[in-house]
Amino acid sequence: MLTVIWWIRRDLRLADNPALTAALAAGRQVIPCFIIDPRLMDGPAAAEKRRAFLLAGLHTLDTGLRARGSRLVIRMGNPLAELLRLRQESGAAAVFAEADFSPFARRRDARIAAQLPLHLHGGPTLRHPNDVLKADGTPYTVFTPYKRAWLNLPLPSAEHLLPAPARLHTPAGLTSLPLPPVQPPELFPPGETEAQNRLCRFTSGPIARYADTRNLLAEDGTSRLSPYLRFGMISARQAIVAARTAVEAADQPAARQGAETWLSELVWREFYAAILFHFPHVLHQAFRPVYRQIAWNDSPAALKRWQEGLTGYPVVDAAMRQLQATGWMHNRARMLTASFLVKDLLIDWRQGEQWFMQNLVDGDPAANNGGWQWTAGVGTDAAPYFRIFNPVTQSRRFDPHGAYIRRWLPELAHLPDVAVHAPWEKGYTVPGYPSPLVDHKLARQRTLAAFAQARRQFQEVHHAQNG
Questions:
Q1: How many whole angstroms separate alpha carbon 279 and alpha carbon 227?
Q2: Are residues 94 and 42 part of one domain?
Q3: Total domain count for the chain?
C-alpha cells in the first residue's frame, strides 16, 4: 500500500488544498505532518501571538483530521532531517507540500528536493509569481500594470474549489510530539471553519460598503481574514472566488466598487509576494538604490516611545497599543504608524518592519516588507518620498469622533472631540500622557532634506561612475 507524506507548512486546511489533493491521488495512505522548525518558531522575527495562532490552528486541524480517521503527526527540528526520519519509519514514497515563495522557503525546499522526492503544488497566492510577467519575460514592478495583467488571466469560479476529503487513511504507530496547550489571540479563533464563516459574513454584507468603510479606524469594515490567509486556513483562491462572485452579484455601483476594492487588495498581496520572489534583496534593503544611503536618525529612545505608544500623537499611540494588545492593526493604522516612524522620527523603516513582524498575528514577510517600503517611499511603486501623512489630519479624517483613540487611550477618553486628536492644540495636558515627541512641521522638513540629500549623493556617485 503506497504511503506518502503531506508536509503541512502554510496550508492549515483540508478544503481547497492542492497539495493534499495530490497526496491523496498518489497514495492510499497519507501522513499529515507538521514540523516545528525552531528557526522559525523562535527566531528574531517570531511573534508570540502569531505562534499562539499557529499552534491553535494545528490543534483545530488535528481535530478535523481525527474526524476523518486520521491525525496530525508533529515533529520538531530540521525539516530535512525530520522528513528523512519519517520516511524511513513509514516507508513513504514521496513528500507533497504547498509551494512557498519566500527566499527562506525556496532555499529550504531546494535542499530537501535534492535528497527526497518533493512535489510542490499550489501556493499561498492564486498566481505563481512567474505566471504574471511582462511581454519580455521580466517581472512587473508597478502595481497597476501588474493588476491589469493579473486580471487578464482566467479567474477561478466556485467549481474550481477542491472539496475537503471525507476520509484519510494514515498508518498507525508513528510517533508524534504532543501539541502544547495554547490560548489563541482573542480576536482570531483558529481554523478553517472560522475562516469560512468570516469570509461568508464579510461577502454577504460589509463588502458592499468596503470602499467607504475600510479606512475608518473605529469601524469593523474589513474582512479580518489576513491571519487566516497567512497560515492557509483559507486559500487565496477561495477568497478571490468570493470577491469575484461579489463583484458579479453587485446590484448597485457602490456595492460593486466595494467588492472590486477588496479584490484589488487581494491582488496587492499577490504583487508583494511576486516582488519578494523576483527581488529577494528587498528583505534587507530598499528596492530603489537611490534611497539606500539615507542618514537615518539612530534614536533608541524615540523608537521605544513609538513601540510603546507614547509619541504624544493620539492616533499613532492608539494604533501601537492596539498592536501590543491584539497583535493586529487596521491597514490604515499600519500606514499611519509606519509613516510616523519613518517620516516624523526619521528612523530606518527596517526597524519598524521588524517590530511589526515581532508582533503581528498576520505577519507575512512579503506583505509586511511591501507595506513598509511603500509607506517609506523607498520601494517599488511606492508613495513618493515627499508624501508625508500629517497624523493629526489623518486622525480627524479617519476617526472623526475619536472613538478609536478613546478605546485604546482611555486616559484621553474625557477629552472633547475637538481636542482628542491633538490635545496640545486646545491647551489640554493629560497627566501621564506625553507631549508630542516631535513637531510635525519641523520633522517633515528634516525628512524632506534627508531624502533629498540621499538623492543628490546617489546622483553624484552615479555620474562619477559613468563619467
A1: 24
A2: yes
A3: 3
Res 467 pLDDT > 80: no
Whether residue 144 sits in one domain with residue 105: no
Q: Is 168 a domain residue?
A: no
Is residue 283 over pLDDT 70? yes
d(CA 123, CA 5): 17
CA–CA dist 367, 429 (Å, integer): 38
Sheet containing strand 73-76, edge to edge, reads 73-76, 29-36, 3-8, 94-98, 118-121
225: domain CATH number?
1.25.40.80
> What pTM was computed for the model?
0.96
Q: What is the pLDDT of residues 204-250, one digit of tens each?
A: 999 999 999 999 999 999 999 999 999 999 999 999 999 999 999 99
User: For residues 395 and 20, what is the distance between their CA atoms, to the nearest angstrom?
Assistant: 46
Q: What is the pLDDT of residues 344-369, one digit of tens each?
A: 999 999 999 999 999 999 999 999 99
Nearest to 342 by CA among 442, 440, 447: 447
Task: Answer whether 397's CB lies under 8 Å from 390's CB.
Answer: no
Residues 6+ apart with CB under 8 A from 441: none
Instruction: Please tell me the distance from the alpha carbon of residue 79 to that of residue 296, in angstroms, as a whole number.
Output: 39
Active site residues: 265, 268, 296, 331, 349, 372
Q: For residue 39, what pLDDT band results from cuts at 50, 70 and 90?
A: confident
Task: State the CATH number of the domain containing residue 19.
Answer: 3.40.50.620
State the Cα–Cα distance between residues 391 and 411, nearest whole angstrom: 19
Domain that holds residue 269: 125-162+192-278
Contacts of 190 (CB under 8 A, 6+ apart): 53, 56, 57, 59, 60, 184, 233
User: What is the Cα–Cα distance from 133 to 129, expressed in whole angstroms?
Assistant: 8
Which residue's C-alpha cell is 499611519?
Answer: 336
Query: Which grid coordinates are listed for 49?
Result: 501571538
Region 313-340: what's the mean pLDDT? Answer: 98
CATH of the domain at 422: 1.10.579.10
CA 248 remoteness from chain centre? 27
Tell me if 458 sits within 8 A of 293, measured CB to CB: yes
Which residues pair with residue 7 across a beta bridge?
33, 97
Residue 142 maps to a domain? yes
